[in-house]
Every structure is written in structure tokens, then in C-alpha cells.
Amino acid sequence: MTNCPPKLRGDLSKWLFEINTGVYVGNVSARVREELWSRICESVSQGQATMVYPAPGEQRMEFRVHNTTWEVVDYDGIKLMRRPLMRRIEEETPENSIETHPDSKA
Questions:
Q1: Less Cβ around it within 10 Å: N or C end of the chain?
Q2: What value does the mean pLDDT take over residues 36-41?
Q3: What is the pLDDT of residue 105?
Q4: Rounded CA gap, 21 and 40, in Å?
């Protein structure tokens, strides 16, 4: 996470270890993970968040992003991150938020 409020950092430290500034790791259930992601999206304000967690499949991981200009792209079943061209970023308004879920198509 980047640019997040201290309250959110404290909230996450109840469930996860902060191994570097804004980098949290842990082993939690899917239910706890979903609740934490909801809290993050509600509380991160102008900050950015990325969540990576284990999942079945070729990559053996899944990820979500919130408040970022990077896009999740499905390439033949493999999810990749694409940085959009600068002109496209400038066309978007600052209020735009990108949040992906495992079953969403980018």
C-alpha cells in the first residue's frame, strides 16, 4: 500500500505482519482476506493498494489492485499488469478507481 492513513496500517497490523513500509504479509482465511480487502478499499482514501494471494491455476496466485492506473489484463488465462499509455492516463479523471476481482474480465 502507498499513501494510506495510519489508522488503516494499524488495522492491518492486527492480522498481518508489516515487513516493510506498506508491505503486509500473512496467512489468513479467504473470509478474513475478503473483509480486509473491503476495509482497505473503504479506508485507503487517495492511496493505492495491491493484494496478492494464493490461488489454483497456472500462476498459483491471484491479485487485486485499487486506485491505480495499471490495468489487469487476462492473456490466455494468465493475468498480467499493463501500464497504460500516458495520454490515456491524462484523459481519465482523478476520481476513477480501478478494482479487480478474481472473476472480473479486464
A1: C
A2: 95
A3: 47
A4: 16
